[in-house]
Write a structure and sequence with these properties.
It is built from 18 helices and 22 strands. It is of the alpha/beta class. Strand 10, helix 9 and strand 11 form a beta-alpha-beta unit. The longest helix has 15 residues. The N and C termini lie far apart (about 70 Å). The structure holds iron/sulfur cluster (SF4). It holds the Pfam family Radical_SAM_N2.
């Protein structure tokens, strides 16, 4: 669908081809646009559609190594989702789940060695100051160095919590649960995808119900109480039994774990998979299945989210549509349909209207029309996909090619070549330095960051300076620290303090621009101040009204600007709200022992 807008497409993985493209653009700086486009079109994996349809062979990197992994990752100043350092431990998957496009187009599996993973973590954590690591992989437990690299990371960075992107239900062992259980607990995620083993055979997802229950048991034993499960509905060959199977499975699981989050998505068939021609289930049928699942769900502690069938319908059009679909996209955009992946912005009625106006035959796309992407060679042969489709119809599993090549043609046929976990030699944990208590004083320069954003930034800065915080005990270890009482979000401050127990000397703390470190000093004990001093600009100042508030003591006032002393445990904003005086600008100036 994006053919009419882009000058050039890169098919495949970018690490190497981006360098070739940039070199060409540099070499031909100032040359005519046509010449550059022609040059780009000659690079393997690059396609310039205006120069005609050509066969494009995807690009892929044969080796993942430290050189092609980003270490200096961007650290957000505020808390965001995925607020952690991410390491891609492997790429590709050879399990062959028949619905999964990524599983086919990223073949073969390539691994980083255990030592590389540890080295990247070491450099990245030091650079960013993050206290959480996320290990990215299609199927973490399929890495031949699993769980050794997790053991290695835990031994090397005992205070860092590790989030595992996806572990197969049959891969959680006592050993791995024990290692993971030592730090902060994250959620265990399992993707059975279908409610019954019969349907899992059709989609080639070789997970048994028993595997899920065994993992649950182990997770429970080691103190996990959050689990996330992923399912799909509308899969090829699905029957009512399979749909009700989802509810039954959840009913059985729910009593065995405290928090169970479930995500159910309508299946959208994708190009370059065995299901690329299959029809997508209609909206009404999906809705019927949704209510069927909820009707049969007895469990109470399950939080089920069902992805909108209407959104899936539009996704289906964009996924398998040809260039004509671009008119639909353009029209939708012109009508202001942006942020359509967000439920509150999605407007299906408007989409239906646009489909009618453009006259595009969306039914043909949803039904699985032509294979108009066949000039793209994504590695896996088309014949192989057809054979897989036939096997799906008969419910025959294709084994993971790590046990023997199944002939998909994505690599020269020896998956071992790209698997290079190596040995993990246990590191002796270095003796920790002496414990120290520090008092850090800082200025909060911007009103747009929260109190916790500041604390996080200072603690990250301490880690970045190479000093490790002392952690609390228990299931969710945190840095052992005490900080000044919360400051309202829109206030600045001249003097905030943070006491933190660390191993070693803090000399300098690198922090983002919205903070300025004013002082770093060793402290004997934590000292707290019962009173805080604020400088406030207010728009309807009334001294008499203010004097009625017992807890506020005015020390200065001039032309709408006042300085007041307030008990540290009281919210200055709330006190002023009560007497109807509006604070336009607020700043914490300092601390006092007496009012
Ligand atoms: S060619 Fe064989 S070994 Fe290589 S990814 Fe395909 S099935 Fe696996």
């Amino acid at each position: 669908p994006l053919l009419p807008v882009f000058d050039a497409f890169v098919i495949g993985e970018g690490e190497e081809v981006i360098v070739e493209m940039l070199e060409l653009m540099k070499r031909w700086k100032g040359a005519e646009r046509e010449r550059k486009l022609k040059g780009l079109n000659e690079i393997q994996g690059v396609w310039v559609p205006q120069l005609g349809r050509k066969r494009v062979e995807r690009r892929w990197v044969e080796e993942l190594n430290e050189k092609n992994h980003p270490v200096k990752q961007i650290v957000p100043n505020i808390e965001v989702i995925h607020d952690r350092f991410t390491i891609e431990v492997s790429r590709g998957c050879t399990r062959g789940c028949r619905f999964c496009q990524a599983g086919y187009i990223y073949r073969p599996v390539r691994e980083r060695s255990i030592q590389e993973i540890i080295d990247i973590a070491s450099e990245g954590l030091q650079f960013t100051g993050w206290d959480e690591l996320s290990l990215l992989s299609f199927s973490l437990s399929d890495h031949t160095g699993f769980p050794d690299f997790i053991i290695g990371l835990k031994e090397s960075f005992p205070d860092i919590s590790i989030s595992l992107s996806s572990i197969r239900g049959d891969a959680i062992s006592d050993e791995i649960a024990e290692v993971m259980g030592r730090g902060r607990k994250t959620t265990i995620t399992i993707a059975p995808e279908a409610g019954t083993e019969r349907l899992r055979n059709i989609i080639n997802k070789d997970i048994k119900d028993d595997d899920i229950f065994r993992s649950l048991e182990i997770a429970n034993r080691y103190g996990w109480n959050h689990m996330k499960l992923y399912f799909m509905v509308g899969l090829p060959g699905e029957t009512e039994e399979d749909v009700i199977g989802i509810s039954r499975l959840l009913n059985r699981i729910s009593g065995r774990i405290k928090y169970l989050n479930v995500r159910i998505s309508p299946f959208v068939p994708r190009p370059f998979t065995p299901f690329e021609y299959t029809p997508q289930e209609g909206i009404e049928d999906l809705k019927r299945k949704k209510s069927f699942i909820f009707k049969n769900l007895k469990a109470r502690n399950v939080n089920v989210k069902f992805r909108s069938p209407e959104v899936a319908f539009i996704e289906g059009i964009l996924t398998r549509g040809d260039e004509a679909v671009f008119h639909l996209i353009e029209k939708a955009w012109r009508k202001g349909l942006t942020h359509q992946a967000w439920g509150e912005h999605f407007d299906f009625t408007e989409w239906e209207r646009i489909v009618e106006e453009t006259g595009i035959d969306v039914a043909r796309i949803i039904e699985g029309g032509s294979r108009h992407w066949d000039n793209i060679d994504c590695g896996v042969g088309e014949k192989y996909l057809r054979v897989e489709m036939k096997k799906a119809e008969r419910g025959i599993i294709t084994p993971d090619c790590i046990t023997g090549c199944t002939g998909c043609l994505a690599c020269p046929g020896d998956p071992e070549v790209y698997r290079k976990a190596g040995e993990y030699v246990s590191v002796r944990v270095k003796k920790k330095k002496e414990k120290m208590l520090y008092r850090i004083t800082y200025r909060k320069k911007s009103p747009f960051y929260s109190h916790m954003d500041c604390i996080r930034a200072v603690v990250r800065g301490i880690r970045r300076s190479g000093v490790k915080p002392v952690m609390t005990e228990g299931y969710n270890p945190r840095p052992r620290m005490h900080f000044s009482p919360a400051l309202p979000l829109d206030f600045t401050s001249e003097e905030e303090f943070l006491y933190i127990h660390v191993y070693g000397d803090i000399k300098k703390i690198p922090v983002p621009d919205f903070i300025e470190i004013r002082n770093i000093e060793e402290a004997e004990k934590v000292v707290s101040y019962p009173y805080a001093v604020y400088g406030l600009t207010v728009d309807n100042f009334d001294e008499d009204r203010l004097k009625q508030v017992e807890d506020v003591c005015i020390i200065n006032s001039k032309d709408g600007y006042i300085e007041v002393v307030v008990p540290s445990n009281r919210s200055v904003k709330r006190l002023f709200e009560k007497i109807n005086i509006r604070i336009i600008q607020g700043r914490r100036i300092g601390w006092r022992r007496e009012p």
